[in-house]
Structure formats: C-alpha cells, structure tokens
Amino acid sequence: MEPPSGFYASLWSFIHFLPFFIGLLVLGSIKGVILFPLTCLIMTIGNSAIILGLWPAHVIWSYYCVLRARQLGPLLKLVICICVLPVLLISWPVLGIIGSIIGGAAYGFLQPIFATIQAVEEGKDDKLRHCFIDGTLSTLERSCMVVRDLKDVCFLSYFSVMDDLRQNGPPNSKYYEIRLLYLPGAFLATVIGLLIDVPVISFVAICKGPYMLFKGWHRLFHDLIGREGPFLETICVPFAGLAILLWPLAVAGAVLASILASYFLGAYAGVVAYQESSFRFGLRYVIAALSLYDEYSNDILDMPEGTCFPRPQYRKNEDSSLRTNGSASVSRPNSFKKAPSSSSSIKNNIAELKSLELLDGLFRECCIVGEKLISEGLITRKDIEEAKSGKGSNVVTIGLPAYCLLQGLLRSAKVNSMGILINDDTELTLTNRPREKFFEWFLNPLLIIKEQIRAENLSVSEEDYLCKLVLLNGDAERIKKSGIGPAPESEVKRAELDALARRLQGITKSMSRFPTFKRRFDDLVKTLSDDHAEKHGPPLTPTMNRSKSAFGRLISFKSVRGARTYGSGQGSEHIVRDEENS
C-alpha cells in the first residue's frame, strides 16, 4: 500500500491509526509485564549458571594458555598475568550477570510489544489472533536460544581461541614483548594527548550539538510530511513521532559520547608513540586526532567537508593515498551527498543485507551442497559422526562451509563481480553489506581471495582440485581417492592453491566462533545425518557422541605435551596418545 501523499492526508492517516496503535501498545505492554519476569529468570539463571560454572575453568585455562603462549615474551606474559587477566576475569562474572538481568527484563518486556504491533502488518491472516499470541512463546524460546548461544561461546569458542593462542608460533619468528625503553615516551604522549584532545574535542562537540539538534528535527519533520525514511511504514509512524520528541536526548547522548571518546582518542597517542618507537609521532597524532574527529563529525552531520585542524603524518608507513587528498582523507559516502527520496529509501531497505540473513543463507547452501556431496560419497557417515562429537576430521565442521564460500567466490570471479554473488539475484558488496563492524573482518579477506582467484585464472581441473582441497582439509589420501585427477604439476601453483585453501579455512574457523553459528551448525549436521540415513541406511551401531568437558581439559595438563590437538570451529579436543593406542 502506497503511503498517503500530502500533509493533510498524512495527518489524517496518523490520527486514524493512533487509537489502534494505543490499543496494540496496551495489549503488548500487558503481555510484556507478564513475560518479562519469566525471560529475566531464564536468562539470569541460565547465563549465571554457565558463567559461574565455567569461571574456574576459564581462570585456570587463561593463565595456562598465556604462560604457554609462544607469541608472547616473558615480560609481556608477566604484565598480562598480573594486570590484565585479573581485571578481565573478575569483571566478566559481574558484567555478565548484570547484563543478563537487564537484558532479560528489557527483552521480555519490549519484544511482546513489537510482536503485537507487527501482527497487524499486511499479508497476515487472522490478525486478531496474532495480536494475542505473537510474542509469547517466541519470546521464551529466543530467551532459551540466548542461553544456548552463550554456552557455545563460553564452552567452545573460548577454548578454541585460547588453544590458538597457545599453539600458534610467533609471526616472523619474533614474539611480542614490552619494550621498556619506549614506555616513558608513550606515557608522556598519553598525558599530553589527554591534556590537549579532551578539552578541544569536547568544545567542538558542544559547539556542533545545536546544529545536530536542529538538523535532526528538520530532517524528521521533512520525512513526517513527505512520509519518507522512518515514516514510510504506517506501523513506524508512532515510534518515529516519539523520536522527534526524544531527539534532544539523542543529541545530548551524542555529545556525551564524543566527550567520553575524547579520552580514548587522546590516550591513543601513547599507543602510537610506542608502536612507532617515536615520541615525535605521538605528538603528531595528538594534532591529527583533532582533524580526524572534526572530519568524521562533519560527515555524520552532513556539513561541508574539510577541517580547520592540520593533519600531520603520524605513521612511518602511512598509505600515500591518504596524504594526497589532504583534509578530505575521510571520504564522504555517496549516500550523504543528496537527500534520499521515497523510492531510494525503499531500494536501500531492500538492498541492505543483514548478517544473520547471510548466515542463514550460508547454512541453507551448506545443506543443499552437503546433500549433493553425500550422494557423491565425498561426505561419509564418519565425517558426520565426527562433526557431532566435535573431534576428528573437519570435513563438515570447517570444510563444508568453506567449500560453499569458495563456490560463491568462483562464481563472482568468473563474472567479474565487484562483490560476492550470494545467488543469482543477490550480490554482497561494500555498499549493501551489513553495518556490523565485525562483518568487515570476514568480508574484506574474502574479497581479497576473490581477486587472487581471478588473477590466477584457474582451469577447470585446478578449480576442482581447489574445491576438494578446501572440503577435505588437505587430506592427501582422500583427495587422491576422490577421483578429481592429479594435482597441478607446477609446485608454485600447488603452493598457491594450498595457501588459498588454508586462508579460506581459517576465515571459516573464525566465523564458527561467533554466537548462533553452533546452533545453526547443529541443525545442519542433523539434516545431513538424516539425509545420509535415507540414502545409505542408518548406522549399524548407534553411537553416543560426547564432547570432552572443560574439566577434562584441565585434568589433562600432565599429558598435554603428549597430546595431539585437532582444531575445529567449535573448539579443539585434546586426545592423549596413550588413549589412541589403547
């Protein structure tokens, strides 16, 4: 349904919908009052039990891994064990439990309200029934999902990350160490940065506050009259109207956030001085930080580009492209250069992708491709059982998601895509990517791998070899039995393909450590297991899959040197050689 055009039509639509909105708000609030004690109890009890139950294991394992880490020098280990780990380990239970209480109460109260209002959207049948039942059981189920995701992070992802810290060698055969010679200069640069950056940035933020206030009001009223932006959907009109009333609080919060951020910006001068081994570069950063903040705030507020502050070079190896543009180094996205219209707002809402949607799409692709690979015999019952137990080969755990990512990269490289082709009608680019910062940690390396694949100009046999190399985790015996033909004759080509496969598997392993991945992965393994049983029959003997507990990790310290470690996206298991021989 198209939004009404004209001021009076929009005003009448708003007044006409207001009674319905108030009724839905009251109904949703009643459901929220009933449900929020339950969600608060579920999340508080569940999360607290996980945090406190695993806290002793986290304490012992953190100290053990830091002391055994080959990437860290002796002095750095001492500082981390005395100053850093106690703060993190003591604050984690406190913040985790408090966050569970507040988050559980807020989620239990607000989610039923949103679900009740969304129940009257177009396309739903029996809206009256949905108004009463939506946001009830789903809120409780998602609260349990939060507890499960926290368990996966604390029990599996944590140990996987710490095992990598303990096992990986130092880069360039040189471990990280504290350089005592540069600490006085870094400390002095930090003090100077705080004395200069904090008052100046705070003054700039306070001066730009009124501009942000009236600029925001102007934009919100413009969207209200034209039914654009947050006022495009009728259901959002009351919330967007509330945003107009609360906009001064948002401005005050932005100013306070800028003042708080100024302390971190000023203190970072000490980090620059230490990293560059130069007190002079730390002083240069103190001046450059003012320019960086001024340019960034101008971009956010859609103010003229440029800054009145100088921006000296504070890195020895700073990118020359950042220096050629002068003060305009913080480039403004195209979206800021013209006011969006109603049609462009619709297009942007459709085009912008969400991280959870992309993760769901990846697992749907894994399910389709996995069933095909089961039919071809490349994924066996043993691979599925090992994925359930979390030990052994990583064909399903790491290989299958990496294989699906590689297929998308190959499709994108063949058609010279600027991004990554998710499917025939969806392309993931830098413009429509999810806005979460951590998503860049995966997208940018994947784009680099895509360009490397395009530059390699792989043949069909080389693509097939690379795909099986990624899927089978470099298992030479299984690759040979898969019947894909011999490896490339050139040693250079084989080394390049091996490097691409390892990087892609490393990215997939990092992705597997994030929340919600394990829950989706368990559903994938169950689907593949059912499909394998349907095509090849059920397993002859039922097996009980149990992953080794965190307590089991801790009591195996004496045999850890004689253990062989199998890394996986959901953690790594230490299997003692004596147990393997028995």
UniProtKB/TrEMBL annotation:
<feature type="transmembrane region" description="Helical">
    <location>
        <begin position="181"/>
        <end position="207"/>
    </location>
</feature>
<feature type="transmembrane region" description="Helical">
    <location>
        <begin position="33"/>
        <end position="55"/>
    </location>
</feature>
<feature type="region of interest" description="Disordered">
    <location>
        <begin position="313"/>
        <end position="343"/>
    </location>
</feature>
<dbReference type="InterPro" id="IPR040229">
    <property type="entry name" value="At3g27390-like"/>
</dbReference>
<keyword id="KW-0472">Membrane</keyword>
<keyword id="KW-1133">Transmembrane helix</keyword>
<feature type="transmembrane region" description="Helical">
    <location>
        <begin position="253"/>
        <end position="274"/>
    </location>
</feature>
<protein>
    <recommendedName>
        <fullName>Steroid nuclear receptor, ligand-binding</fullName>
    </recommendedName>
</protein>
<feature type="compositionally biased region" description="Polar residues">
    <location>
        <begin position="322"/>
        <end position="332"/>
    </location>
</feature>
<feature type="transmembrane region" description="Helical">
    <location>
        <begin position="7"/>
        <end position="27"/>
    </location>
</feature>
<keyword id="KW-0812">Transmembrane</keyword>
<feature type="transmembrane region" description="Helical">
    <location>
        <begin position="75"/>
        <end position="102"/>
    </location>
</feature>
<feature type="transmembrane region" description="Helical">
    <location>
        <begin position="228"/>
        <end position="247"/>
    </location>
</feature>
<feature type="compositionally biased region" description="Low complexity">
    <location>
        <begin position="333"/>
        <end position="343"/>
    </location>
</feature>
